[in-house]
Design goal:
four-stranded antiparallel β-sheet, mainly beta, about 290 residues, Neuraminidase, five-stranded antiparallel β-sheet
Length: about 290
């Protein structure tokens, strides 16, 4: 079922690969990245003010952390970012990662751990896998042997985590607790529903439904907790990368998009592609926990 909602462009960011959108409740701003342009954006919906900081390498994600910092995943490792000075400080590399890989997409769980993925920067070799950053310690956790990792996404009570294999057109789920991760199992085969589109970043709403952007799909899709397609929301762009719940009531959906695979004819057809979009969500999200650094 397609849900008709008033989608609007809120920032003409001209992203090559907009990604990693999230709501920073403390600052009341939206953060997102343009991976290929090495930009970390923030947008204030109350005033419309916005700007970006130049990252020292391709930046896959940025998550609010303790001490007023953001924790960021770049091509060559984990960094902190200080918004007041636009300063990136490297914490360390991810052990064992091939030189051709980069980091891609992340989320926190209720305990402040950060779950993230790596991927082949050329998007072909199955050298990507998932990790957890737990108060400074990085260890493998979750599926491996993936060309493009996406997600991950954790539900509100931390009982479930979702992992996306974008090229494989599948979303997986595992039980989660403070003690660790359970067995990974198939959640949704999106390729059977959207054969020409690829599941990208995901987020869970307050009633445990999973929303995912569909690259080459022109929409976001919502799945029930059982993995059944519930509805789609059409977007003014083709390549939809991620959605987040924001606003003070967590009822505004913010969506990032990309243009790196679009031709001149594609851009003429969808000239707003690469923008940050928003629409009134039919359900709320839930507050995101800040990353614990130590």
């Amino acid at each position: 079922m397609e849900m008709t909602l008033p989608v609007k462009q809120v920032l003409a960011a001209d992203c090559l690969l907009g990604e990693g959108v999230l709501w920073d409740a403390e600052r009341a701003v939206v953060w997102f990245v343009d991976i290929k342009r090495h930009r970390l954006w923030h947008f204030d919906p109350a005033t419309g003010s916005n700007r970006f900081a130049e990252a020292p390498a391709a930046i896959g994600w940025a998550i609010p952390a303790e001490g007023g910092l953001l924790l960021c995943g770049l091509k060559d490792g984990i960094y902190t970012f200080a918004p007041e000075s636009d300063t990136f400080t490297k914490l360390g590399e991810v052990p064992g990662e091939p030189i051709g890989n980069r980091l891609n997409d992340a989320c926190t769980d209720p305990w402040g751990r950060v779950w993230f993925g790596s991927m082949d920067d050329s998007e072909s070799d199955t050298s990507g896998r998932f990790y957890v950053f737990d108060r400074g310690e990085i260890r493998p956790a979750g599926p491996s042997g993936i060309a493009i990792t996406n997600g991950p996404a954790v539900n509100a009570d931390g009982s479930r985590i979702y992992f996306t294999d974008t090229v494989g057109q599948k979303i997986f789920v595992a039980d989660l607790s403070e003690e660790g991760l359970g067995e990974v199992r198939l959640f949704a085969n999106t390729g059977a529903l959207f054969p020409d589109a690829y599941p990208d970043g995901s987020v869970v709403d307050s009633v445990d439904h999973v929303w995912t952007g569909l690259y080459f799909g022109g929409c976001v899709a919502r799945f029930t907790p059982e993995g059944k397609l519930d509805c789609t929301v059409a977007m003014p762009a083709r390549d939809i990368t991620k959605m987040a719940f924001g606003g003070r009531d967590l009822r505004t959906a913010y969506v990032t998009t990309a243009t790196k695979n679009m031709s001149a004819d594609d851009m003429a057809e969808r000239p707003l592609a690469g923008s940050l979009f928003a629409f009134p969500a039919p359900i709320t999200g839930f507050p995101q926990v800040r990353a614990r650094l130590s």
